[in-house]
Amino acid sequence: MRFHILTLFPEVAEACLKSSILGRAEKNGCLSFHVVNIRDYTLDKHKKVDDYTYGGGAGMLMQAQPVYDAWRSVQDTAAAGPLRTIYVTPQGRTFTQRIAGELAQEKELIFLCGHYEGIDERALEETVTDQISIGDYVLTGGELPAMVMIDAIARLVPGVLHNEESTQTESFQNGLLEYPQYSRPPVWHGRAVPEVLLSGDHKKVEEWRLEQSLRRTRERRPELYEAYCNRRDEET
Ligand code: ADE
Fold this sequence. Notes:
- The protein is of the alpha/beta class.
- The chain is built from nine helices and nine strands.
- A hairpin with a 2-residue loop joins β8 and β9 (191-192).
- Bound molecules: adenine.
């Protein structure tokens, strides 16, 4: 899967994408990242990319021309059709594991990162297919939210994680939070690992894990628990 990131701060994106699991996945060919500096596309002789907003108000706005031309340069390289373009903004719908799963089906995605007061609405109208937020709080720019989304999407791409099973059992994949986990030693600071996990009885272990997942979800995320119960009731 290929990710294009349009940004005024390419170094922020590069630092995240080149390291750890995502960096390894790019080296082995599962993922590729193309970071585009929007400033490279401005026609302004002083390399300016922002200006005051019409109608007044605080702050500067990213201008339509450099954003559109940077986006156009990526679309023109796309092998198959127009690429889905995600504008990272607190005004978008809230990102979830379900959206990550849906976006992981795409072959290529464009992420458009805003800064300052945002981007001229006309450029958004001509480029953006999806507006997505990572939560109800405001950050200084779109790079960190874009990295959050890319990380969540990329790890669902086959081959990115070594242990494919881990995306099946973890929190949210089945609408529940994950059960508690333990490793050696069997007793630490006087706390023993639950006996069932040492029993070797796989069926009992599965039952215990589901029970723990249900309890955890009910206690910590009652709204997720309710949705899970409603889905379960509909299926039966
Ligand atoms: N840009 C600034 N804040 C944001 C948020 N919460 N989600 C997505 N993009 C943003």
